[in-house]
Description:
- 2 copies of one chain form a homodimer.
- By secondary structure, chain A is of the alpha+beta class.
- Chain A has helices at residues 56-64, 84-99, 121-130, 138-144, 197-210, 239-259, 278-290, 292-299, 305-314, 343-353, 380-387; strands spanning 2-6, 17-22, 33-48, 68-75, 108-111, 153-161, 164-173, 186-191, 215-216, 226-231, 267-275, 325-328, 331-335, 338-339, 357-363, 369-376.
- Chain A is built from 11 helices and 16 strands.
- In chain A, the strands form 2 sheets. In chain A, strands 1, 2, 3, 4, 5, 6, 7, 8 and 10 form a 9-stranded mixed beta sheet that branches. In chain A, strands 9-16-11-15-12-13-14 form a 7-stranded mixed beta sheet, sandwiched between helices.
- The longest helix of chain A has 21 residues, at 239-259.
- Chain A is globular, with a radius of gyration of 22 Å.
- Chain A starts with a strand and ends with a helix.
- The model of chain A has no long low-confidence stretch (mean pLDDT 90).
- The interface between A and B is large, with 70 and 70 residues.
- Chains A, B: It holds the Pfam family ArgJ.
- Chains A, B: Heterotetramer of two alpha and two beta chains.
Amino acid sequence: xxxxxxxxxxxxxxxxxxxxxxxxxxxxxxxxxxxxxxxxxxxxxxxxxxxxxxxxxxxxxxxxxxxxxxxxxxxxxxxxxxxxxxxxxxxxxxxxxxxxxxxxxxxxxxxxxxxxxxxxxxxxxxxxxxxxxxxxxxxxxxxxxxxxxxxxxxxxxxxxxxxxxxxxxxxxxxxxxxxxxxxxxxxxxxxxxxxxxxxxxxxxxxxxxxxxxxxxxxxxxxxxxxxxxxxxxxxxxxxxxxxxxxxxxxxxxxxxxxxxxxxxxxxxxxxxxxxxxxxxxxxxxxxxxxxxxxxxxxxxxxxxxxxxxxxxxxxxxxxxxxxxxxxxxxxxxxxxxxxxxxxxxxxxxxxxxxxxxxxxxxxxxxxxxxxxxxxxxxxxxxxxxxxxxxx
Amino acid sequence: xxxxxxxxxxxxxxxxxxxxxxxxxxxxxxxxxxxxxxxxxxxxxxxxxxxxxxxxxxxxxxxxxxxxxxxxxxxxxxxxxxxxxxxxxxxxxxxxxxxxxxxxxxxxxxxxxxxxxxxxxxxxxxxxxxxxxxxxxxxxxxxxxxxxxxxxxxxxxxxxxxxxxxxxxxxxxxxxxxxxxxxxxxxxxxxxxxxxxxxxxxxxxxxxxxxxxxxxxxxxxxxxxxxxxxxxxxxxxxxxxxxxxxxxxxxxxxxxxxxxxxxxxxxxxxxxxxxxxxxxxxxxxxxxxxxxxxxxxxxxxxxxxxxxxxxxxxxxxxxxxxxxxxxxxxxxxxxxxxxxxxxxxxxxxxxxxxxxxxxxxxxxxxxxxxxxxxxxxxxxxxxxxxxxxxx
Lengths: 391, 391
């Protein structure tokens, strides 16, 4: 038995964890370089993108095999990806400079933004000089890592039970190039839970699979996707309670990313059941989040269920039109070979689609595989944002 | 040695082949039901969609195992897909009615349009009554099968060599739900070449792989994709010449579909080389045609090569940033670990992207696998067309 209560201050809900952001001039007039630091060295677990061209900050962490750190430096507007050895050297140079300003233990860098451009080291060093290392603003950090995001993504909980108590907080950024194949663009989670080191990575991977790996904005998997879980170990621990709290944190942040998808006006859960197995349920659900025809129908609030069926049929999963069932919330439009779609049903389904958030249920009627994926619509603004990104 | 000369009249370039279209009222005021027929029974080869929910017209042809026919009835605005047994019965009923109007041998139906709605049999029967069976208008037929297409897709050639001569003509429709996993939406090719029956299917499949299977408008594979190859066998035959002519027909029609992709302003060839093998080259090239971020960059005429690299990295193919090379036509932007992209190169690449058609070269530098895929940009109009499709 345990109780999960929302609290304030995001990643700074943990004692001894500091965070902040400054305006380094990468953005016109907003925070663009930030930090997370800790009084003590933190145990850390992480998941990185499956994109073969992993960005320099990811290569750096893997190269150094970092398991503990007390400092994360993050920047937006430049991904430091496809920058080769030079990109890694830039990180070394920047972190070397950082170490002249504050005591650091195996510091980490994390970047997001345009791919294929060298970092402006001078600007980042000037940002470091402006840091208030005693600041405890999760919000400024959350803003510093935003690119085309329209709002900050933060959350924190306190968890109490017979085992004692711990806290957990997280920040993330998303918006575009979102089809995480391991984690989303950037996500940082802090906790004081006393998790055994050997459980951290497994738990993170398990919860990631049903949260960040279940969302898609545009089907594009970035070079920089990273999720970090850090703990001070000052609190208590209970595995069940921790997994539940971590899931709540990651689900909230993942859904915020979908809600804030580039140009998105709706966040839709595609609940697939009855698949041959879990993997096929995931294939079908992810295919629905990535189909342009489904996404544009969502934008048009058009209950064109034929596009949903066609996408399932093209997704490669085992399916049969005599077994398939499709509903918009509780409105069944197609039931195992029977087209129920008439004017009245269409009107009801259309009303549901006007909501900012709703569920589409697809039952394949074959096995017991289940998966829920979260996607958004495709609007004029997605095209606008991405056609004009660099100009 | 042989010579391929463009000729007129599309599929009606072949003696004894008739085609036409009438206005049945499915469209506001345009041709929407058409036919192709022949004086004699035609040998026929076909390829159908890999979508698991194949439409009723496809199921019908497979069920009857049709190898020869003298009549194809086609309609737009309704795909007769996800309509179950009833959808097949509707075809039987319609073709039964057709047989009271003209002598038919194993007639075929072919449909395109909205999924999940029963055919209006009465309208189609009325259309049949209006057919002028002696009409020889490839163009009217091409218009009758158009949905969101903005122009007719037709082509014909005469091929002459020491072996004698034959003719070949084709029509197709495309526009949306175009990521053919076997053939595009609808394509009909007529010839009088005396091809051995056992070679027809193999040649069609081989040429299809590098033409229709190499294009994508939106990554959505429809329930109705079909390509038909029909011959009267009245002409001569030479395998090499026939393959070359068939390739020219199918390539022209496939490219026309990309050029006329919903909302498309550009047709781009993604020429991938140096892949581990042909399959990986195809995976990479197709991934580029389907990436929303690449497609919106094309629309914005933004030479954001980082998105191309990122898409390659996420496509699942073997790759290495030290071996990768990316060019817009002859302008190299990234060369095996070196970022060549500066203001001058950017300007040159931007100029190339202003063209209506151009090539993007990606050399993976690993093996000798090559594949060229054809795609288009993603514009506001794609969203508009598909958000408003049924309303």
